[in-house]
Amino acid sequence: MSKFDNKVVVVTGGASGIGLGTAKAFAAEGAAVYITGRRQEALDAAVRGDMSSLADLDRLYDAVRQRHAQIDVLFVNAGGGEFAPLGAITEEHYQRTFDTNVKGLLFTVQKALPVLRDGATIILASSTTGTAGTANFSVYSASKAAVRNFARSWILDLKDRNIRVNAVSPGLTETAGLDALFGGGEQAASVKNDVIGAIPAGRIGQPEDVASAVLFLASADAGYVNGIELFVDGGMNQV
């Protein structure tokens, strides 16, 4: 019997990269998985939506309710960011980043509460940038620091329902989003090659690395793990 047989899992931002890798890992362990994303063809059970849109969130949970009574695991992974140095930060850049990474994550969890079972698990996607300074990336980094505090605060709000909340913080991970952030093509490859030397593990992370951490946090094996930030960064932010 697999660890997640008969469990219902929702993964936001699941059309590619870490989200898709994690959704596949849950499915391989027997879970019924729902994902959101902008490329609906990625999985049959996908719900197309923008997680900063409250109407899209309502539609997501309505779709789950049509087939299942409750959600067992919620992985809030939808997010994104762009480089912008202090002095060139625009209101649009700020709003776009915080709407997705903070507002979207907040209301994804809040609107899930009626359908989350008591004893469910929530995993929030933070980032190593939330605890380390990163040039030209302060707005994104601040948004991820907010995510880290949500995990700490919500374990108090949800303790009477025995719902665990943890954050997973990936480091550099091989995704289309990382390539786009680094300029794509040969430029992205060059940047990644330059930073590998700063990673004690000696490589860029893979979506499967993060998926393994998320599945651990969601499992009974982590039943006494609550409110932590689990770094999946090859040691880069630990030295």
How is this structure best summarized?
The protein has 239 residues and is α/β, with parallel strands linked by helices. The chain is built from 7 helices and 7 strands; from the N terminus they run βαββαβαβαβαααβ.
Layout of strands and helices, then pairs:
Blueprint: E1 8-12, H1 17-28, E2 32-37, E3 46-48, H2 54-65, E4 71-76, H3 91-112, E5 116-125, H4 138-157, E6 164-170, H5 176-181, H6 185-195, H7 207-218, E7 229-232
Parallel strand pairs: 1-2, 1-4, 2-3, 4-5, 5-6, 6-7
Helix pairs in contact: 1-7, 2-3, 3-4
> Number of DSSP helices?
7
Number of strands: 7
The unreliable regions are: none
SSE arrangement, N to C: EHEEHEHEHEHHHE
User: Largest beta sheet: what is the strand line-up?
Assistant: 3-2-1-4-5-6-7
Mean pLDDT: 92
Euclidean distance between termini CA atoms: 39 Å
- Based on CA atoms alone, the radius of gyration comes out at 17 Å
Helix/strand/pairing class, anyone?
Answer: alpha/beta
Shape designation: globular
Share of residues in strands: 15-25%
Helical content (DSSP H or I, runs of 4+): 25-40%
Biggest sheet features:
7 strands, parallel
